[in-house]
Amino acid sequence: MIDFHTHSNVSDGSHSPSDLVKIAAEKGIKYMALTDHNTVKGLREASTAAKKYGLHLINGTELSCERNTHIIGLFLKRFGEINAKASIRRKYIELSLKNYGFTKEKYGTLLNARDTFIKTMIDNGKSSGKTHTIERFLQPPFGYGEAIDIIHRAGGLAILAHPSRTQGVNEHDLPEFLKELKAYGLDGIEVYQSIQSDDYTAFVYELAVKNNLLISGGSDYHNPSRTARELGMYGNIDNRKPIPEEIFDNLWQNRNKYR
Fold first, then answer.
1. Quick one: fold of 2-79+144-253?
2. Which distant-in-sequence residues (6+ apart) come within 8 Å of 156 by Cβ?
């Protein structure tokens, strides 16, 4: 089994990197990417655990862009620039927390998870909704081209994550959006994802082939309570299937495209 999109508690998952690797190995996953949001700080711990449990870990991250677009980096080789960008983002969120009455000591865990910060602002009556929170309190961390360039400079492949969840991009708009991202250097697209129909999977697969994009797949696993997402699996909750292992070879063959 394989899974190229997972999260630990270094960003907004519930398991530590080592526990996540242990759970994945026990499930039979042989190749897994840890893709925490806008950070690579969990990779060292995950790598140590992967050696212990006989799992092959792929160094990854998931960079947040405008319009709720997420670009995954796979096979990362250098981490300095991503760590620097993560530090800048962390300071910006910390300032937002401070400005709106939250102390670092009490809400320190929020600094690693944008979604948690958004929920907190809404729950405390400081925002009317997710879009309002992002526009008022948070700067989008990356532009499309910036995210792709950062990933390439880190030696990784840039993959568009869960295209069905990109804000304002439906099936009609996705072909043109992919052309825009390809112009920035996009390498691939996540064809196999959680919470999508077989018809949508087939649609994205055809777009990937038509645009000569690498095909990836991931569960976007965060924690056991998100029952619609299961390690190593894709599709709707009532029609889950293992992520096809045959997609691995082409990704692996391109792992050193950006040295």
1. TIM Barrel (3.20.20)
2. 59, 60, 73, 74, 75, 76, 77, 258
Alpha-carbon gap, residue 147 to 140, rounded angstroms = 11
Q: What's the pLDDT score for residue 101? A: 67
- 80 forms bridges with which residues in the sheet? none
Helix, strand and coil in the chain, % to nearest 5: 45, 20, 35
Domain extents for the chain? 2-79+144-253, 85-137
Residue with tokens 């992967």: 50
**Which residues in the chain show pLDDT less than 50?**
none
| Rounded to 5°, angle at Cα 144 from 163 and 251 | 60
Report which of 41, 56, 33 is spatially closest to residue 11, judged by C-alpha positions. 41
Cβ atoms of residues 137 and 110 within 8 Å: no
